[in-house]
Batch of 2 targets.
Target 1
Amino acid sequence: MSDLVFVRDKEVVIPGQPLARGKMRPGKDVYVDESGTIRSKKLGLVSLKDDEVSVVPLVGAYIPKEDDLVIGIVSKISGNTILVDIRSPYQGALPIQRRAERVDMRKYDLRIGDVILAKVRSFDGASSLILTIDAEGLGKLEGGYLLEVDPAKVPRVIGKRQSMLSILKEATKSEIIVANNGRIWVKPPSVKELIALEKALKKIEEESHVSGLSDRIASLLSQELR
Amino acid sequence: MPLYVERKPESLITEEGIRTDGRLPHEMRPIKMMVGVLEKADGSAFVEWGGNRILAAVFGPREVHPKHMVLPDRALVRARYNMAPFSTPERRRPGPDRRSIELSKVIREALKPAIFTENYPGSVIDIFVEVLRSDAGTRVAGINAASLALASAGVAMRGLVSACSVGRVGNFIVVDPNHDEDMWGDSDMPLAMMMESEEITLLQADGTLSEEEFKEALDLGRKAIRFVYEVQKEALKRPYYLVERRVV
């Protein structure tokens, strides 16, 4: 079989579009059909790295992974479980148990509507999604604003080696927590910075597939905060 | 006394093969597609196909309600086809009827093979197809719209599903039958395919077709669907090209 790549790096592809055949290895969000052709599973951007071809989705729901950081909203408290909406097809469960290693039981004093930062402790791929807040920095978030982006854009908001996130933090002098489920908690010094952040996030969502995004975000922020 | 009286045209097709709307047998009606038209849906599409105006919305994968419908190993796919009361010449009674329940089923089954349902166990993907204006061939236009909406929602798929109708009027096999041909033609055959693998996901037929006619119809349908697929591809990629052009 000949070695062929049908697409350019960073090209927009649609589900089913043939990407490559031959020696290339299938990476994420692609599948191999009966004839051995690697095809895209999703609407996204092609990523060609060495001999691996994968697709970076442009949109999509949040599918939990173990050790992911998520921002959830408490939706129900029943018995010894707190149910948390994490903006995903699966609802998070936060068990309340008294355990020896538990540092601070006051963390569990939550009400419906509270916003919490949690970590995915275990997820079996379907029904059981267990969260935890037993670690430094996790727990109820207070006094900020909750913004949202498409979960597929989270890597763009963070950037390579946190480059985008540090641009956002420095320019707006804000505390920012980006969670894997696309929720972003911000604590800006004033409303001006909040509006600038909202505009910047919207721009990241819209233009993430065009290169030079960091520069455009930096100039947008300096314009907004002048 | 009905306000609207349907009149059958004297002939549906001339000897030269000119149809009631002036098209040739192998000519399709104009098609326009766009995605991302609804803010609140995870994915959406709008299709103009001749006189048809169809809106499709996709929600999901999301949590299943009611809970007893959950499938533990794959995603549940639900589809609803609905015609607006104002979509037909005379007011249509709102709500599901025998026809729209059937169409919901065939649309769901035409799209389901394209979705990697095993990637989203225990969740649901809801598909809504709303016909705002109908002019023959709403089910195929609906499938095209719904397939675009699914892709624009970021759902993992084997490929887009494209669809088109073919029919027979007298001795002619015609592509994309119009209202008159749908009403009084000899046969009508809606077809849906995953164009990349050429797998058929929907094939229905009204009226009669001989074996040769069926083969000719299938062949013509495949050609038409290939064209529809090109329109779909362009519609999905267009928003990203537009942004690119604005930015660069």
Target 2
Amino acid sequence: MPVVEREPLLSARGLVKHFGHVQALQGADFTAHRGEVVALIGDNGAGKSTLVNVLSGVIAPDGGEITLDGRPVRFNGPMDAQRQGVETVYQDLSLAPDLDAAANLYLGRELFRGGVLRPFSVLDRPAMRLAAVEAFAELGVSLKDVTVPVAALSGGQRQSVAVARAVAFARSVIFMDEPTAALGVVQRGRVLETVRRVRDRGVCVVLISHNMPEVLSVADRVEVLRLGRRVASFNAADTSIEELVGAMTGSLDDRPAAATDDGDEGGAP
Amino acid sequence: MTRDPARPPARLTRWAVVLSRRNEAWTFAILAALVAFFSIAAPGKFLTVYDITQIAVNASIYLVLGVGMTYVIITAGIDLSIGSVLVLAAVAAAEYNIHHGGAAAGWGTVAVCVVIALGVGAAWGALQGVLVATGRVPALIVTLGGMGAALGLAEIATGGEDPSGAVAGHLQNSLGYGKLLGIPWLVVLAAVVTLVFGLVLGTTRFGNHTFAIGSNPAAARRAGIPVARHLVKVYALMGLLAGLGAVMWLASYGTTSIAGHSTDNLTVITAVVLGGTSLFGGRGSVLGTVIGVFIPAVLTTGLIVIGVQQYWQDVAVGVVLVAAVQLDQMRKQTRERA
């Protein structure tokens, strides 16, 4: 019975990606369920970024398969992934600093005026601003003015804009690449609080992080990547920093990789 | 251009803040100061109806070019080729006109000439846009090469001499010298172009994507904006407006002036930058460009009226230009530190 309930929302099997002679992914697996926070950890060069880029549609894998909600998918670019409810908060936030928060929230998905103006794709700025204010309020973020350029906001506020954009449009998965790396203690706490809140809405949050205490405090599960493969998967509650570091560095390799889950559901070739 | 029509009127200070944040406000203050100075220095002589008309006619072609350049610079690009593209488009139209009736050519020929000028300009611009968008060559070099090549082709076609019979009398008498309710058609045309592309830039998706690409091209790409295709469109638009500039030039002066457009690029880029458009991309407006075009125009006329050598205008504009970019640079730095 529990096996049925744990039908994964996003699952990847045997992903392969090489750049020239570099084998970034060598048969990597990944599993994420609805309403959980999964931390993806690994040493530098373990293939985290490549895996996230493949799963969010930024790059196409050379081999392997991805299923979303049980259906096999092949993302044709990040926009395609977004259309299927998969959003990404990039480490550099990917904001246009000269545009205001509302315009950034709707960048590439603008709302337009109706009626005779519709053929001209005239922006409906009031509607976008209204929606932006709501989106920020929902995250518990107070932006005094959604009409100032994002460049004029603080680092934490900019982070909120990027997160709010992902949350506003994500229906299934949000990838967050090092979302707290550039933040102070207070802002870091706020972002983690946001991560939990988003998870509670039934969206899956995949967190890429180097910060082990943070990973253990916010994640429900931890997947460990090493040399382009998933080498372990832990319940955050049952593991320790030592165990995670051991899996990352390979010092646990002689032990059986017991916790690696769901080896054989599905079965399509 | 208003930011929030729903604000209660009591928030006047807020409006002042918003206004001072806009680059156009400062540039407009400079323009107003210049006009005030010359009006006081030469009472009754400056700003006569004749002056205003003359200033507007002289500025109209630069305004049309400046509108296109505003888009290009907002994408963090540059187009040095506009003067040469204008000449090439003018020569192409002129060659057709010479062989289809010359100065006495009919309206049909005029229409074909207009289409040729616009087409040549747009095609040349699109070609440069493709190279900028897909190649690894910076816009500065692509359009520097395009500047030489376009002028070269125009000189090959004409042997370097401005051909006679280049313009039909119909075109000169209508667009060139004609007036609508006392306003020269050239000015009306420039105003319409400015208004349309100002609105497109400020209120539509096309404009929004133009800003986004100049602000952060990687973010624009990730947001699904077709960056390369958009850049091709922007450079093609610049070329199209250079072609329109060619039509206006032919109508106004009746000759191709092959040698007369080598500094159009600097004049226009100066106007756009004076108008507050950032060379780093992402910020700017057509309204600012309008003001930026009129500052040198007012300076020239004003200096003549008060009896100072008009060459001081070049000195003054040069100084103001460098100061404007310096200010932009400083603003960018303080903003990024925040």
